[in-house]
Amino acid sequence: MKLIIGLGNPGPEYAKTRHNAGWMALDRIEARFKLEPSRKVQFHSAVTEGNIAGEKVLLLRPQTFMNRSGLAVGEAVSFYKLDPQMDLIILVDDLALEAGQIRIRASGSAGGHNGLTDIQRALGSPNYPRLRIGIDGRGRIPQVDYVLGRFTPEQLTRLEPALDQTANAIECWIKQGLTKAMTLYNG
Questions:
Q1: Segment 104-117, tens digit of pLDDT
Q2: Fold adopted by 2-185
Q3: Burial class (CB in 10 A: 0-12, 13-18, 19+), 8
């Protein structure tokens, strides 16, 4: 089984904000693979179950707010006895990438992202894959205001293909592994 976790914040006031790029990617994955979004709540998350490329998948949207994402990830990994390096991937926004870019890494630092910091704390290691979705740098806008702000129309135009690429990369990761996905999608 594969665990695909999109980071974001719950509530309508956060819908379509830059910090919810991970949830937007899960929306695209559900649509692409015709997965029925669920109202099921488990592991402090909204959970969608399905299959991608013949593999059982769970898509999680932690409902704990970004800074407590590790609670959901840790519970799910522990419950299913998953290997974080092989069986899960985190979809997350990234200020260091331009909107429209994605980058997959097998491990690494949290890069100042509080959601990744909490996941690292919960797993006890930075060794878990993450797919970063670019949201552009914040310029002179305070970071909290920027990430909790909505995408500009121009950013959304650049983000759309990145969400499609994210769905493609997830399918590749499931079928052919992380190294192949990194080779093909870290353009």
A1: 999 999 998 999 99
A2: Rossmann fold (3.40.50)
A3: buried
